[in-house]
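Memo to structure team: turn this sequence into structure tokens by end of day. - J.P.
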Amino acid sequence: MAFKKIVVGYDGSQYANNALKKAIEVAKCSNGEVYIVGVIKPIDFGIVDYITPTEIEEYEKEEISKEEKYLKEAIKIVEESGLKAFYKVLEGDPSEEIMSYADEVEADLIVVGHRGLGGFKRLLLGSTSSELVKYAKQTVLVVKS
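Reply from structure team:
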């Protein structure tokens, strides 16, 4: 089976870099396209009462800026390998957003690392890969490091 459209969950971690390398390897076999996504988790409703709307807006801008930096670095790696690449920053639950985006671009394959950076906003938490394997319509490749 040839994978022509590959979505990669990316957060700048070594795990995500390994997933990106594997996605490039797979895409080269079929001259595929690589769609790189970063997901920002929204601020937890429990702390919204303690921060101002301005602080929320600043947080979101900062997070988007960080994600775009990571994604642009990843795009460069893909393009240097001779493949077409696209990126998008999404906001919400990582597994849900990745699945939705994969459906939107009609992807054949989703590639993710086994573990990401963790923490409040990072993308590839261990449960993200599990959720993708269980619920995604596409084939899911989990790259272990």
